[in-house]
Design a protein that fits this description.
Blueprint lengths: L1 E8 L4 H14 L2 H4 L2 E2 L7 E8 L2 H7 L2 H4 L3 E5 L4 H11 L2
Length: 92
């Protein structure tokens, strides 16, 4: 399975933060109830890291009200050998 970072922005008003958090928590989804939020530091978005089969599956985790604004990023790690290969591939 692949790992994805799901980033879900919302408005910066207190009511918008509360609405977003409530929607996430009321879904009962394990993924959504464990979201990390940046609101208390002025970053009005939630982040979730999930292991699923595809970007589409990751997007499907997001509540419909926020799905179109969500950003889905596939995550990966590198070994030192892979970094060397990147350098060779890019000619640096």
């Amino acid at each position: 399975m692949a790992r994805f970072l799901i980033e879900v922005p919302h408005g910066n008003q207190a009511a918008e933060c509360a609405r977003a958090a409530e929607i996430f928590l009321r879904t009962g989804s394990h993924f959504l109830t464990r979201a990390d939020w940046g609101c208390m530091d002025g970053e009005h978005r939630a982040w979730i890291i999930v292991e699923v089969e595809s970007k589409d599956e990751a997007r499907g985790i997001v509540p419909p009200a926020f799905r179109s604004q969500a950003r889905i990023v596939q995550l990966n790690t590198f070994t030192l050998e892979q970094v060397d290969e990147l350098r060779r591939h890019h000619g640096s």
